[in-house]
Amino acid sequence: MPSRKFADGEVVMGRWPGGVLYYELQVTGYNDASRVYTLKYEDGTELELKESEIRAQSQFKRRKSQSSSGSPSRRRISKVQSRSPGRPAKGRRRSSSQGRDHKDDKEKTIQLVLVLFKLSENNTRRYNGEPDSTERNDTSLVSVERNLEPDLEIEHEREEKKIKEKIFKTIKTSKTKELEFGGRIGTFTLIFFLPATVFYLLLMCKQEDPSLMNFPPPLPALESLWETRVFGVFLLWFFLQALFYLLPVGKVVEGLPLSNGRRLHYRINGFYAFVLTAAAIGILLYFQFELHYLYDHFMQFAVSAAAFSMGLSIYLYIQSLKAPEEELAPSGNSGYLVYDFFTGHELNPRIGSFDLKYFCELRPGLIGWVVINLAMLLAEMKIHNQSTPSLSMVLVNSFQLLYVVDALWNEEAVLTTMDITHDGFGFMLAFGDLVWVPFVYSLQAFYLVGHPTAISWPVAAAITVLNCVGYYIFRSANSQKNSFRRNPADPKLAHLKFIPTATGKGLLVTGWWGFVRHPNYLGDIIMALAWSLPCGFNHILPYFYVIYFICLLVHREARDEHHCKQKYGLAWERYCRRVPYRIFPYIY
Predict the structure, then answer these.
(1) What's the average model confidence in pLDDT over 96-110?
(2) How far are the Cα atoms of 174, 317, 343, 460, 492 from residue 329, in angstroms, in the given order?
(3) pLDDT value of residue 315
(4) Closest CA relative to residue 504, chosen from 62, 157, 118, 137
(5) Model confidence over 156-204: pLDDT tens digits?
């Protein structure tokens, strides 16, 4: 077997996968079996290349770039004139040695180290009033060996756009190396543990004394957990929301660029679907439909939703086996069946233009959560012979209604979340969207039906203020992030400062994101506490949501930290030094 050509630690020039641009990289590893090198860019970004895609630094000449005398947004690229391989030099006869020289020149890949880090850094300095690096003796540009006409000027913005498109078009989905959730054993366990947790919480809420000491709760007969009519109602609900999703109302927007540079289109009509659902529920109530039917068959609805999510997950995995490599999820392409089934193998599974993941993210489960809460409110009034719902129930319904309406009103923002851009659509998201969200997030309302809790108006006012504070932090932080991701050059964001990265994106270091690294999570936790407080302090069960939410967000925060460190490298380390606190200021 031939020996390796480049040693660990050696600095080489590596070609971007599938492209013509070469970058200065450091060798960090080598796979003898596949003869593939692992290399690292200066900001920490890693990639794998074959030996044929790597050149020694000695093959490239480095020259100082000359900044153009015009606007800072324009620069002149230093050039090397080269005659065409098809023509001899003027005044010389062609020879076999010249032919070989021309062949060697042809084999030398065109060289341009103009990384997005520099481009973004220059933009940042202009936003903050600092001089552009092109106004100083910028030595980051490398000679371009190409058949170009002399004195060709390329506009700065055009350079940036061209390189970004090249990068997006040439990146290929690689195998998932680092497994989350405990790997294969952990994900296999979670497939059974998550449904068991939901059923346990619902059974506990039905007990007169839902104390954790009363474990395990009495188990119902298996035949009582399934009713075909209930499953039919669930299917009707799911396909009704699918119908609303297909309605040609609302604007169509583009998502973030995929690894192949393509942008998917999404119709933003979740709020319209909510309004139509509210009208349909109003009609049912007008015709004396007993909505508390949901409360009476709550466990059966949960079982139906779990069965449907499992069937959907199996369908998604089978379909993902036919998907092209570039359409697979970066987090669910491990090659292990159970792991990929759980995390989701395909990133954006679609039936025609119907995006299954995007649809399930906000429609059946999130809107269903509000309908379940309303059913619990009506069930409380009926069971306790009340003419009006309790103040605790009103607070829980109002707070969570605000949360859902906000998500649907700002539906476009979900397109920038990790669920859409990074995670595949498998059992984890299918079960989470269709079972966990509607049946666990409504736990407080379900608890209050069997365990009414009276609170005073001053206490209710204090809880309301707490929820408003959490909501303000959550919404303003998310809006700031989404606006910046969509258009960093927006004049409204001119006061924000950020650290540029090699990916072309920036890391905000002022505003909410300069306060803590995940201010939206801080707002989420404050709101979760406000949703649980109306249930009183007799039992810890209503606070399961708060405990779960803290654990979930700490896990997601750790996930985000790891993902961002890999993605942004040294820029992320600078950001962490600038913003030391993760979720809780001065604590964590």
Answers:
(1) 41
(2) 9, 12, 9, 45, 34
(3) 96
(4) 118
(5) 555 555 554 554 444 445 677 778 888 899 999 999 999 999 999 999 8
| Residue 212, C-beta contacts closer than 8 angstroms, at least 6 positions apart | 540, 541
Cα 527 from Cα 534, distance rounded (Å): 12
All structural domains of the chain with their residue ranges: 10-59, 183-454, 455-587
Of 393, 428, 410, the C-alpha closest to 552 is 428
Average pLDDT score over the chain: 79
CATH of 10-59, one of 3.10.450.50, 1.10.3720.10, 2.30.30.140, 1.20.120.80: 2.30.30.140
Tokens of 178: 């680092």
Cis upstream peptide for 85 (omega within 30°): no
For range 79-89, the mean pLDDT: 36
Token pair belonging to 433: 């969207």
Radius of gyration of the chain (CA): 29
pLDDT digit string, tens, across residues 449-473: 999 999 999 999 999 999 999 999 9
Burial 98-137 (b: 16+ CB within 10 A, else e): eeeebeeeeeebebbbbbbbbbbbbbbbebeeeebbbeee
Element (H, E) at 539: none
Q: How confident is the model at residue 19, as a pLDDT? A: 60
Q: Given pLDDT bands bounded at 50, 70 and 90, which one contains residue 97? A: very low
- Please name the residues in contact with 269: beta carbons below 8 A apart, sequence gap of 6 or more: 244, 245, 247, 249, 250
Residue 496 near residue 488, CB atoms below 8 Å: no
**Could you tell me the sign of the dihedral formed by the alpha carbons of 418, 419, 420, 422, in that order?**
positive
For residues 581 and 509, what is the distance between their CA atoms, to the nearest angstrom? 12
Q: How many residues does the chain have?
A: 588
- Name the residue with higher pLDDT: 562 or 280: 280
Query: Whole-angstrom Cα distance, residue 163 to residue 209?
Result: 63
pLDDT digits (tens, 9 = 90+) for 556-580: 777 777 777 777 777 888 888 888 8
Rounded CA gap, 394 and 374, in Å? 10
pLDDT band at 428; cut points 50, 70, 90: very high
Helix (H, G, I), strand (E, B) or coil at 314: helix
Residue with tokens 């409360």: 295
- CA torsion 441-442-447-449 (nearest 10°) is 170
* C-beta atoms surrounding 352 within 10 Å: 6
Q: Which residues sit opposite 76 in a β-bridge? A: 66, 153
Q: Which long-range contacts (CB under 8 A, 24 or more apart) does 139-142 make?
A: 139/62, 139/64, 139/65, 140/65, 140/113, 140/114, 140/115, 141/63, 141/64, 141/65, 141/77, 141/78, 141/112, 141/113, 141/114, 142/60, 142/61, 142/62, 142/63, 142/111, 142/112, 142/113
